[in-house]
Design a protein that fits this description.
- It comes from Sphingopyxis bauzanensis.
- This is DUF2171 domain-containing protein.
- By secondary structure, this protein is mainly β.
- It has a single domain (6-77), classed as Roll (SH3 type barrels).
- It is built from one helix and seven strands, in the order ββββββαβ.
- The chain has one helix at residues 68-73; strands spanning 14-16, 22-30, 33-36, 47-50, 54-58, 61-64, 76-77.
- It has a seven-stranded mixed beta sheet with strand order 5-6-1-2-3-4-7.
Length: 79
């Protein structure tokens, strides 16, 4: 499997699941994790998604290889 070029991931990009469901908005890339904007969080905490879930970057949208519901299950909370 080819390595993805994560340099295409930019602030304010929309993150959608493979099923087209909105998952969140990029705050910034932190190593191999995408830090998501707090505005998408119900409890005001930052969430992280593994960058390895990124399937494609199209324009200002990141499409994940996982569905929206699966991606939510994979969220990591900020320490």
């Amino acid at each position: 499997m080819a390595e993805h070029d994560h340099s295409a991931i930019k602030e304010h990009m929309k993150i959608i699941g493979a099923d087209g469901v909105h998952v969140g908005t990029v705050d910034h890339l932190e190593g191999e994790r995408i830090k998501m904007a707090k505005s998408d969080s119900v409890d005001g905490k930052h969430r992280y998604l593994p960058a390895g879930l990124v399937a494609t970057v199209e324009g200002d949208t990141i499409r994940l290889s996982a569905t929206g519901a699966t991606a939510v299950d994979l969220f990591e909370e900020a320490e």
